[in-house]
Write a structure and sequence with these properties.
Largest sheet: 5 strands, parallel
Enzyme class: transferase
Strand content: 15-25%
Number of strands: 9
Organism: Hallerella porci
Number of domains: 1
CATH topology: Rossmann fold
Catalytic activity: GMP + ATP = GDP + ADP
Order of helices and strands: EHEEEHEEHEHEHHEH
GO molecular function, one term: kinase activity
Strand order of the largest sheet: 2-7-1-8-9
Distance between the termini: 8 Å
Protein name: Guanylate kinase
Length: about 180
Amino acid sequence: MKHKLFVMSAPSGAGKTTLKDLVIREFPDMVYSISATTRAPREGEIDGVHYFFKTREEFQQMIAKNEMVEWNEVHGNFYGTPKSFVEKMLSEGKRVLFDLDVFGKVNFDKVYPEAVGILILPPSLEILEARLRHRATDSEDVIRLRLENAKKEIAFAEEHGKYEYKIVNDNLEIAANQLRKILST
């Protein structure tokens, strides 16, 4: 029997989104999870496609009604996984790939302990720093914060996370093949 739920976690800059975008289209029975958020839509973002956009009050009501698998507040906005989305996809026979941070994964596992965890790691912190700098999208302070967060996230994942698989993303083609193999299980 094929696994139904997969959770990818990675520090910023490890290449998780690139890997996901490269591989997921090869699995027609798999969907990428849509999160709920209280942040305003960015140009071109569509409700129910990119995110489920909620008011702060709506999101807090979902939390109070235990309608979120996991949630967190980041930079003043809430983000989380609605149970209704997960259950709808499963009832339609779909498999679901989630992108959750290592802290959200712990909470996710309380509701869906059968989920397969995939930890995407950079080859080293030095290479991670180089990737973040190469993006040229963040200030020096943001890069430093992302590196500090990466150290904390990796340590937390190693100690508290449930990750059946680890992929060190030092070669995109090899990492993508490893992800394909995992998603085929």
